Amino acid sequence: MTTLEPARRAGITKPSGRFMLAHPAHLIAQGLGSGLSPVMPGSSGTLLGWLSFSLLTSRWPDFFTVTHWAVIIVLGFLIGIWACAKTGRDLGVADHGSMVIDEIVAIWLVLLLLAPADFTTQCWAFAWFRFFDMVKPPPIGYFDRHFKGGFGVMWDDIVAAFFALLVFALWRAL
Fold first, then answer.
1. Distance from CA of residue 35 to its chain's centroid?
2. What is the rounded CA–CA span in Å between residue 119 and residue 130?
3. What are the extents of the domains in the chain?
């Protein structure tokens, strides 16, 4: 069986808008379509997370408080586990590159813990998070290789977020 066999049986040869709209889990896992970007879908998902965090926090600051964001992040993590597990099964690839809810939730966590942060700090947060998510230094790479399914997809990005936050903590301590 090829890696996209379940999707092929459904008439899909690669993740597409049609596949994404076939189930709510796909829509969530693929970041409302940002994961379908032909170039660097993980960065596209991270950008969507950054933009949504900034827009929601600035537009409705009385609702999108630290407490509400913490709840949203926890729920996003749990829903992401389900959405990535379902989407991975349907694609036949446990951690398909089009699944970006993990990047979205992780960048929300980074931005929340750095808030308030100016635009330059947010740019650095984006860059450091993407660096750790792509390079996967230990233990991120270990988690990526050994934790499978929806939890594995979500968890390695939370660890990458922790590493990005660690860079800021070390920088501020100096």
1. 9
2. 16
3. 5-173
